[in-house]
Every structure is written in structure tokens, then in C-alpha cells.
Amino acid sequence: MHFLEPVLNPRSVAVVGASPKTGSFGGAVVRNLVKHFQGEVYPVNPQYATGDIEGRRCFASLCELPQVPDCLGIAVLILPP
C-alpha 17: how far from its chain's center? Predict the structure, then answer.
């Protein structure tokens, strides 16, 4: 297996900053992955860890995931000071 295989053909993706809010960037990322990606999608956001996002259980942190994801997406907004 080529060392880039997990990046180019991932079996699982975690999205930090996932959100159930309509119109949010994190929500759109998860929604599109669930719709078009064949592998596991793990939403990660401590604010929504007691629920689910797009039918997937949301985790409070990466440490809680049931497996190490092949790829990680970061969907957070960082505002300047």
C-alpha cells in the first residue's frame, strides 16, 4: 500500500466543528460527506456530543472515536482578536 492511500482513498473521515445548524459550514461538510462518501463519517463537536448530526452520532472529542480516522476535516471559524 502506498503511504498516501489513506489520504487519497480514505475509509473514514472525522469532521471537527460539525454542526446540526442549517446553513453552517460544519453542517454542510457533514451533510455532503454522508451523501457522497462511502466510508464512515464521524462528526466531532463537544456542544452536540449528546445528539447526532445527519444521522451520525456526534462525539465530544477525537479521543472518543471508535477508530482512528484516515482523514480529518476541520470546519471551525476562527475570529481575529
Answer: 7
Task: Give residues with Cβ within 8 angstroms of 6, minimum separation 6.
Answer: 70, 71
Q: Name the DSSP letter for residue 57.
A: E
Domain-by-domain residue ranges, the chain? Answer: 5-74
Query: Quick one: cell of 29?
Result: 461538510
Helix (H) / strand (E) containing 53: strand 52-53
Class for the domain spanning 5-74:
alpha beta
How far apart are the C-alpha atoms of 44 and 52, rounded to whole Å? 10
Residue-wise pLDDT tens digits, 32-58: 999 999 999 999 999 999 899 999 999
Distance CA 53, CA 20 (A): 5
